[in-house]
Amino acid sequence: MSYLHDKVNPYDTDTEKKKQVTGMFNNIAPYYDFLNRFLSLGIDQSWRKKAIAKLESSQPQHILDVATGTADVAIMMAKHLKPERIVGLDISSEMLAVGQKKIEEKNLDKCIELQQGDSENLPFVDNTFDAITVAFGVRNFGNLEQGLSEMRRVLKPEGQLVVLEFSQPRMFPFKQLFNFYFKYILPTIGRLTSKDPKAYKYLYESVQAFPDGQHFIDVLEKTGFKSNQCTALSLGICSIYHGKK
């Protein structure tokens, strides 16, 4: 099944979404962390902490962080969960380079391994990981069901999936303010700062097209995940999805 978000691309070219997303993140990698903190007023870090907290009770020892980007979630998990091993996988070499530098500065290179790879064709054998996290990444998959199916494949039985992703607020007038900020203010700041005029315009468009809330729960169930839950954060700007294999 194809979703509307599959057809929302960063650039107006015939190149497949996966390659466009890779190019976009390579372009904005040097500015990515700064823009995340600045544009979200720092609240994105609290969202990540709440997502990671979903794994605290089970204490997973082998964790895969898909679409790890600059390794924010991997670094946070190393600190709070203290697992034996974290693998951070991303399609963008430039984002991984930024992440690797942060990992080495924090002396976490024995715990965290970064690897370039495709989230829709994971380079791991079945039943490898106790838990998988994805923060602001599933929205960029070229094929959502394929990516979720791959993550389920490499999870151990009863392994947990935690997805953190933007969603659309429903409450008036917050919904209108959110859409105005995402559609007009954020792309303008992003364009001036990151030098990529399309990247933050794509952010708004991809959030609008993404099947959030119960729609995403339905996709999780369709791809074989169970005990799926959705927790809305910050009046619905962001949501945590939690399921099991």
Report on the architecture of this protein:
It is globular, with a radius of gyration of 17 Å. With 245 residues, the chain is α/β, with parallel strands linked by helices. The protein has a single domain (4-244), classed as Rossmann fold, CATH 3.40.50.150. The protein is built from nine helices and seven strands, in the order αααβαβαββαβαααββ.
The CATH top-level class label: Alpha Beta
What's the helix count?
9
How many discrete structural domains?
1
Rg, Cα atoms, Å: 17 Å
Q: Give the SSE order as H and E letters.
A: HHHEHEHEEHEHHHEE
Query: What share of the residues lie within helices?
Result: 40-55%
Number of strands: 7
> What is the CATH topology descriptor?
Rossmann fold
Unreliably modeled segments: none
Briefly note the structural class of the backbone.
Answer: alpha/beta
Q: Specify the biggest β-sheet.
A: 7 strands, mixed
Concise account of the structure shown:
By secondary structure, this protein is α/β, with parallel strands linked by helices. 43% of the residues lie in helices and 20% in strands. The chain has helices spanning 17-28, 32-39, 43-53, 72-80, 93-105, 144-154, 174-194, 199-209, 214-222; strands spanning 62-66, 85-90, 112-116, 129-135, 155-166, 226-233, 238-244.
